[in-house]
Structures are given as C-alpha cells and as structure tokens.
Design goal:
Number of helices: 14
CATH architecture of the domain at 1-107: Alpha Horseshoe
Strand content: under 5%
CATH topology of the domain at 1-107: Serine Threonine Protein Phosphatase 5, Tetratricopeptide repeat
Order of helices and strands: HHHHHHHHHHHHHH
Structural class: mainly alpha
CATH class of the domain at 1-107: Mainly Alpha
Radius of gyration: 34 Å
Helix content: over 70%
Distance between the termini: 62 Å
CATH superfamily of the domain at 1-107: Tetratricopeptide repeat domain
Length: 296
C-alpha cells in the first residue's frame, strides 16, 4: 500500500487540506525510516552480542541470540550460517550444525571455503561416530585435490579408516599425512594396536574353560591368578565336603558357588579382551591426534 493510499484510508478526503496530506505523508515516511534504522541497529547489536557470547564459550546463550537475529533478519542467514553452525557444533547439536553448514556451503563460491565447509560437515559425522556417512562424504568431495584440502582430506580419511578398524588403510593414510620423516613413530603406534587387535574375545572366552588361561591370554595376569586360585579353592572344598560327609552334600553345598565363579570367569575373560582392544585403540588414536597437534 502506497503512502497516499494509506493516508486516504485513515483520513476522510474532505477533512484535510492538501498540505496536510503532504505533512502526514512525510511523517509516515520518517517513521518508516526511523523504524528500519532502529531495527537494523537492534539486529547488529544482537549479532555482535551473539558473537561475544561465542567468544566467551557461552554457546547456549549465543544460540538464543543467533536465533533472534535470524528470526527478525532472515536475510542474514546465508552470511552467518557458518558461524551459527559452528556454535551448534560446540553444543553437540550436530544435526543443526550440518543444517547451517549446508546452507553456507551452497551459497559459497570460493572452492577453498567450500572445501572447508564440507570438512566441517564431515567432522560432525565423525563426532557422532557415523563413520560410514563420513566416508561417503569424503568419497564425494569435489575439492580433495586442492593444496589446502589435500592434507585435511587425508587426515579425515585416516580417522575414518581407523575407527572402522581398517588399520591397513589407516596406517598408510597416517603415513601420508605425517610424511616420510615420521614413519617410525606411526609404525610404532600401529604395532601397539596390532598387539591387541588379534586378541580375539571369543578365544579368550574358550580358553577360560581352564580357569585363568583366558585372562592370561590378554596379559591380565593378576586376574588370571585370582581366577585360578578361587576356582581351585572351590574344587578343594568340594572334595573336602565329599570326603568328610558324602559326595551329594559336596555337590549341593559347593556347586552353586563354583558355577557362579567359574562361569563368571569365562564371561569376564571375554569382556577383558574386548576392553583391552577398545582401550588400546583409544590410546593409540589419542597419541596420533596429539602428535598431529605438534606438527607445524
């Protein structure tokens, strides 16, 4: 609706002279300009406040401020989508983070920046442990051969291969990432992971049919000794009761306790093998990541 039409609608035509229409029109125009200026100032102030909260690591409050900005100024979505996505990522809301990263990606024209945004998206999948999705994103990455992107591409590929236990590919990816001068360091770390990767939890479980042997298989020697001694004590107790009274009483009195510790030892050996593999895997990855941070 035009200004004159608005004035005619709210004021009878015969009640005001022509100069009054002009004054009212000018007044409305000034009000519109003032309103737009105030809204812009409020928007800019809120945006700066959101960024300040982000710098102070107040991410939940920062998100609330960003949402106010986007509600009252949706035209800013494309320009601030990346920073909004980063804040959501800090709060572990990876779905929302990807939503804004994708907006920023599709409105970015520079290949280097598009590659960086795609890596941000891949990172959210890795943090969610959605490694197959991360692998698919890496396979479809258009900017992997850019000088900027090549090293990051190799690093994320190494992480995904490692987490999916494709250790051979992970080894070669990390070698490529760290360079020839760090071959010995990478090789040593992967030898550590191989030490426990071949310790099959099911093998540990079956070996524990002989008490303590499964625990010894995964180098838990204290656990092995405890398991052997406890089960040996129950066997000795069974023979003592059987010889002192009769075999039936020995069977009734001792068997429930023996069964509990014997079967428990078998299950525990399997859990120990699984935990050993997991712990060693996490330890080696932690060392690889720490080593990557030490690079210039």
């Amino acid at each position: 609706m035009g200004i004159k039409a608005l004035v005619r609608k709210i004021t009878p035509a015969s009640s005001l002279p022509l100069f009054s229409y002009r004054r009212i029109g000018i007044l409305i125009l000034l009000l519109q300009v003032f309103s737009n200026s105030t809204a812009a100032q409020n928007r800019d102030a809120t945006l700066e406040y959101a960024r300040k909260l982000t710098r102070e690591n107040e991410y939940e409050d920062a998100i609330a401020a960003y949402r106010r900005v986007l509600f009252f100024a949706p035209e800013l979505t494309d320009s601030i989508a990346k920073e909004v996505g980063s804040v959501y990522c800090q709060t572990a809301d990876y779905t929302q983070a990807r939503y804004y990263y994708n907006i920023a990606y599709h409105h970015e024209n520079q290949p280097e920046k598009k590659a960086a945004l795609k890596f941000d998206i891949i990172q959210t999948h890795i943090l969610e442990k959605a490694y197959l999705k991360a692998k698919l994103e890496l396979a479809n990455l258009r900017y992997a051969n850019l000088p900027y992107a090549r090293k990051t591409y190799t690093f994320y590929h190494a992480i995904v291969a490692y987490e999916t236990e494709d250790y051979e590919e992970a080894y070669h990816r990390f070698l490529d990432y760290f360079g020839a001068c760090d071959t010995a360091q990478v090789t040593t770390l992967f030898q550590q992971i191989e030490k426990y990767h071949h310790k099959n939890p099911n093998t540990a479980m079956w070996l524990s049919l002989i008490p303590g042997l499964g625990q010894a298989y995964v180098h838990e020697y204290r656990e092995a000794i405890n398991s052997f001694i406890i089960n040996a004590l129950f066997v000795s107790l069974y023979f003592y009761v059987s010889l002192t009274y009769n075999p039936l009483q020995g069977f009734v009195a001792v068997l429930p306790w023996f069964q509990r510790y014997y079967v428990g030892g078998i299950k525990r050996a399997k859990r120990l093998a699984q935990q050993k593999r997991k712990d060693q895997k996490e330890l080696v990855l932690k060392k690889l990541l720490e080593y990557s941070l030490s690079l210039p």
